[in-house]
Amino acid sequence: MAKAVAAKPNLVQISTAYGGQKEGSPVLPRNKYTAIRNDKPQKKEDAQRPEFKVCKYAADAIVTEGSNIGTIHKVCANPECLIHHARKQRLATDAAFKAEQEKRRREEAMAQATGLRVLKATSDAVPVRLMKRDLLFVTERLAAVLDERRLAVIFRLHGIGKVNGTGDASAKLLASFLRKADESTIGRVLVAIAILQAAHSSNESARALREAAEFYKVDVAAITSKVKQEFAFKEKMQATRKVAGKVNPSQPRTTATKKAKAA
To answer: Is the pLDDT of residue 171 over 70?
Structure first.
């Protein structure tokens, strides 16, 4: 064995025993290398097993400890080999992945805790009675997330104007209106926005309006009755105009309309 090692100093010295490597010893224990078999696989599935494959790191090794001392074997002792040490590579990858996940969870937990504390400190700084600047702050930020349809409702309620499709122009127009308005008007806009934000569908819209009406003690029945009367009146006027137009089609429309109104 000593002659073989002296004749081939590049021979890898291995042991057939598992365990830790002795300090300063050139001998690799069994768990530090993969022995490549010389015999051919008996089954097709066996050919895929690592011990039947030869890699670029394969080298001759001599057993210097354990059983079968002095025998020569082909081994792979490179831990970077993806063929014979794939499991170790996978374990290292899994460990790195778990470490990254743990780091991400820690950062998210810290960010959440920081956000909650900042929110609490900000909330604690709000005065007992909201000032105009506080109402503006809340209203402008809630209005910024309204879609065009809901924003148009706010504009129509307060006669602000028409919503511009670009969004920026509409936001500037609303901001200009709010800064000139008094606190009561801003409060009304804020409540209207809150109701519109709570309505994500036609059913939810009706529910949100009903809850808001109950909270502010609004007589929904009276408003409903008045709207029905107004619609009935408009429909009656339209029917009268149609009848007047058929009776005297040659007469100018303005005259027929005046007679219909007089009737």
So the answer is: yes
pLDDT at 153 over 70: yes
Residue 263 has pLDDT above 50, yes or no: no
Size of the chain, expressed as the number of residues it contains: 263
Cα–Cα distance list, 137 to 51, 121, 172, 190, 231 (Å): 70, 16, 14, 10, 39
| pTM reported for the whole predicted model | 0.45
Stronger pLDDT, 96 or 171, i.e. the higher one:
171
Listed in sequence order, the residues at least 6 apart from 16 whose beta carbon sits closer than 8 Å to its beta carbon are 30, 63, 65, 66, 67, 68
What does the alpha-carbon distance between residue 215 and residue 123 come to, in Å, rounded to a whole number? 24
The sign one gets for the Cα dihedral 151, 153, 158, 164 is positive
Give the C-alpha separation, 145 to 186, whole Å: 17
Whether the predicted pLDDT of 7 surpasses 70: no
Cα–Cα separations (whole angstroms), residue 69 to 14, 64, 180: 9, 5, 97
What ranges do the domains of the chain cover? Answer: 2-84, 132-198
